């Protein structure tokens, strides 16, 4: 890496093939060199290399909310406000999508700021009951913040207070992209190391574990793990193609070799509530449902300004809508686990994946809500 200059406000970046890798060169707006990098080469990593690296005692992180010191009152600043509404996740997040897109298109001043306001979207304390739909709004907007830095602020209002009014003077005195207001405090998210669970909860080997996306890569890996490491004998694998999915027959045979005596692969879209309810009703009494893993999902990546409500809905349906149905329809089951496969995109706001970040943030919010209600999640 060679750094030639600092302070450039505009970069033009050229990436080109360089032998087995790629090289990158960046210049400022006048064509003066700023940075050169390369060649950068990607190499395959063997499984034993990963195993020897170990997981480490301090490899796990969580988001902690920390209070900022009180600040002097300030004026409201140049802020517009967009308040997220109530309703189904597709409608609420779709409204925010349209509102932010319209603001980006019409607000030409780079100094202008938009505050997107939710209420109870973030679990700032253990046991907080959150609104998973509002959590999805945070995932969406976090990606917008990555694509349009320093223009949009996320504000989570205190769910204990009524009304949509937010003191924008708080924003003028706080240089943070994401804040939560709880009482008189302004909280900000920080990554912090956290300890993993001391001991995993035992799983009932005689119960049925349902896995959505069960014939996909993640679902297949987990099914093998449950059979080989936890002795799970009854596996119900759901996917849109069911037994016609590529590799489904081989997966079933491999699971049988690992000790799973009852492997059912069923064609079912978990976002279809009636279809999912029918599958759940068909689980036999001698092997009741004891575990749920939601590993289904789809991608439809693209920059935020090109995202449509249809593309948003496609991704939300597979992850968020299906998760909501699983939560609703299994509440009376004696579950030992309810696992939702989320993504770091929900926390970090991956550029080009606003719809995917929104869907995964919904899963994070749903898991937090279930834990607050004393349910596995």
From TrEMBL:
The UniProt entry's GO biological process terms, in alphabetical order, are: fatty acid biosynthetic process
CDD domains recorded:
KR_3_FAS_SDR_x (cd08956)
Q: Which InterPro entries match?
A: KR_dom, NAD(P)-bd_dom_sf, PKS_KR, PKS_NRPS_Biosynth_Enz, SpnB-like_Rossmann
One example GO MF annotation = fatty acid synthase activity
Where does the chain cross the membrane? none
Going by the UniProt record, its keywords in alphabetical order are:
Multifunctional enzyme, Transferase
Q: Which residues form the Ketoreductase domain?
A: 207-377
Please report a single Pfam family linked to this protein: KR
The entry's protein name is SDR family NAD(P)-dependent oxidoreductase
């Amino acid at each position: 890496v060679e750094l030639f200059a600092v302070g450039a406000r505009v970069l033009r970046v050229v990436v080109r093939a360089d032998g087995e890798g790629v090289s990158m060169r960046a210049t400022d707006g006048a064509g003066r060199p700023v940075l050169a990098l390369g060649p950068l080469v990607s190499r395959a990593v063997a499984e034993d290399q990963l195993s020897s690296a170990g997981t480490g005692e301090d490899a796990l992180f969580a988001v902690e909310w920390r209070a900022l010191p009180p600040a002097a009152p300030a004026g409201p600043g140049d802020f517009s406000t967009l308040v997220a509404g109530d309703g189904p996740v597709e409608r609420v997040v779709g409204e925010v999508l349209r509102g932010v897109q319209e603001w980006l298109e019409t607000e030409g001043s780079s100094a202008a700021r938009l505050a997107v306001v939710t209420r109870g979207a973030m679990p700032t304390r253990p046991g907080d009951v959150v609104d998973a739909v509002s959590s999805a709004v945070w995932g969406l907007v976090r990606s917008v913040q990555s694509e349009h830095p320093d223009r949009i602020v996320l504000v989570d209002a205190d769910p204990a207070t009524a009304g949509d009014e937010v003191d924008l003077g708080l924003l003028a005195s706080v240089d943070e992209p994401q804040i939560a207001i709880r009482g008189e405090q302004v909280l900000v998210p920080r990554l912090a190391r956290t300890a993993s669970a001391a001991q995993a909860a035992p799983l009932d080997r005689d119960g049925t574990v349902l896995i959505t996306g069960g014939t996909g890569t993640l679902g297949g890996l987990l099914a093998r793990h449950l059979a080989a490491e936890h002795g799970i004998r009854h596996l119900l694998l759901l996917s849109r193609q069911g037994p016609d999915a590529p590799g489904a027959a081989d997966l079933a045979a491999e699971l049988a070799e690992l000790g799973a005596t009852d492997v059912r692969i069923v064609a079912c879209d978990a976002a279809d509530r009636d279809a999912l309810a029918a599958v759940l009703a068909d689980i036999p009494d001698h092997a009741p449902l004891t575990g749920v893993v939601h590993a289904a999902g789809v991608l439809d990546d693209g920059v935020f300004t090109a995202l449509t409500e249809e593309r948003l809905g496609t991704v939300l349906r597979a992850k968020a809508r299906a998760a909501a149905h699983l939560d609703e329809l299994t509440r009376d089951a004696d579950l030992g686990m309810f696992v939702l496969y989320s993504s770091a995109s929900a926390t970090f706001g991956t550029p080009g994946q606003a719809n995917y970040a929104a869907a995964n943030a919904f899963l994070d919010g749903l898991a937090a809500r279930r834990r607050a209600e004393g349910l596995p999640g």
